[in-house]
Amino acid sequence: MKSLLTLMIFYSCACYSQTRMPLFELGNGKTRTLSVTERYLLIDMLTLGDNSTIIVPPEMDGWTVIANEAVIGKNVTIMASGSAGVGGGYGYPGVNGEKGGAKPTGGSIGGRGDDGKPGKNIHLTLNIRSIGSLVVITNGGAGGPGGQGGIGGNGANGYCLFSSSESSIVPAQDGAGGGPGGHGGNGGNAGNIKIGYHLIHGVVIPDITTRFITSSNGGPCGAQGRAGGGGQGGDGAKCRSKKTNKGTHGPAGAAWDKERKYAQEGKSGVVEVLEI
Question: Which residue, among 34, 40, 46, 31, has the nearest Cα to 12 in the 3D structure?
Fold first, then answer.
């Protein structure tokens, strides 16, 4: 059997502060969320039951394990994906026009979505006694969607101006345009996966490389936010024999980012599974 010291050479982990554990055990169907003190582990005996799940929490950037003996059940999962970005906020609505005063203002652009968080790096060095299947997921988080643009301000109504001899009309104001939807956030980069394995002397596992299932995809970028609606036009006025039409409805906000030029998908991680 290869010793822990021999396995450590594969990752050169001596530079890290490691925690030594005689036993790391997780029963069938159980879920365990790691603590930050378990970032780097040297384990004498690693036992993971069927359908068990290990979660690498947001406060950890990855998980590095060297196990002198590993017994891994079927459909064991290490979940180390980044979290999705938060969506952008709504744009501010425009200010309504004033009778005889300022015109309405347009809605503001929606808020930008937050970037997705990166996936975690997983490094496993395993002396394997048995294995069913091990799924390792280090996908980057999706970018948050952009916020909806603000609604345009409404136009003021038209009105009459009278004098002793005649009347005139001040036309209704047009509604102001809505704000563009906010840009989506960037997708998070995936974490890397590196698995080095060695079979304990005398153990034979056919097609062992098919027992490792990995997913290390970059997160998708966030969707563009919806455009804000235009403001309502003011009502027209009728003064004696004269009248004016209703103001026009303001245009919806522009779709600034149809091709998502302002947000990028995250990069895929590097995956290595090799016998050592």
Answer: 40
Q: How far is CA 23 from CA 19, 26, 157, 251, in A?
A: 12, 10, 78, 66
pTM flag (> 0.85)? no
Beta bridge partners of 168: 161
Closest CA to 231 of 255, 247, 254: 247
Quick: pLDDT tens for 26-72: 999 999 999 999 999 999 999 999 999 999 999 999 999 999 999 99
**What distances in angstroms separate CA 1 from CA 23, 40, 128, one per listed residue?**
18, 22, 10
CB 76, CB 52: distance < 8 Å: yes
Range of the domain at 116: 4-275
Assign 37 to helix, strand or coil: helix
User: What pLDDT score does 76 carry?
Assistant: 98
Which helix or strand (DSSP H or E) is residue 189 part of?
none
Residue type, 190: A
- DSSP code, position 11: H
Per-residue pLDDT band for 257 (boundaries 50, 70, 90) equals low
Query: d(Cα 44, Cα 28) in Å, to the nearest integer?
Result: 20
- Local structure of 271: helix, strand or coil: strand
Mean pLDDT (whole number) for 120-149? 96
Q: What's the structural domain count of the chain?
A: 1
- Residue 144 CA: distances (Å) to CA of 85, 115, 148, 220: 4, 6, 12, 9
User: What tokens does 131 get?
Assistant: 């294995």
Whether the Cβ atoms of residue 178 and residue 154 lie closer than 8 Å to each other = no
In the block, which residue shows the tokens 């005649």? 166
In the structure, what pLDDT confidence band is assigned to residue 246 with cuts at 50, 70 and 90? confident
| AA letter at 123 | H
